[in-house]
Specification:
The chain is 32% helix and 21% strand. It is α/β, with parallel strands linked by helices and 144 residues long.
């Protein structure tokens, strides 16, 4: 198994996320409070510009928030639509974004690039609340 290296964003992908105040409002409008642990996890996600796993968040927070609370918080953020979860290299990784996107990953070194996906699903008419998880693998230019 390899570690995921820095993720490069494709030129046409805008990796923006909701401003902090909007994320706080979404949390409150969904019937939840912005507790200190949730605030710490949110700030960690905001300061991390690549998908991150719960264990890494736990490390970055110097174990100030227990791992179970981090998982619950991440699942909450996904359920209310301020974060996305993607399985990459058999790890659950989370990121903040307005729109879901996916990754193409080098199977040799773990280098990854973000790719947009909205055009794939815009023609689906008979479904709502669509979720998906796609990871594309290949060999990057550096390794080939």
């Amino acid at each position: 198994m390899f570690a995921i290296r820095k993720i490069r964003i494709a030129n046409d992908l805008q990796l923006d996320y909701y401003p902090n105040i909007m994320m706080e409002q979404k949390i409150k409008q969904s019937g939840y409070k912005l507790t200190k642990p949730r605030e710490l996890v949110l700030k960690t996600l905001q300061n991390t510009h690549e998908p991150i796993c719960a264990q890494e968040i736990h490390k970055k927070l110097n174990k100030k928030v227990d791992l179970a609370s981090i998982y619950r918080t991440l699942n909450l953020f996904v359920s209310i639509g301020i974060a996305f979860k993607e399985i990459i290299s058999e790890k659950d990784l989370y990121y903040l974004a307005k729109k879901q996107h996916h990754h193409v990953i080098c199977t040799k070194c773990g280098y990854s690039e973000c790719i947009p996906c909205n055009h794939l699903f815009k023609n689906i008419k008979n479904f709502t609340n669509i979720s998906h998880n796609i990871t594309i693998s290949g060999i990057c230019k550096k390794c080939s």
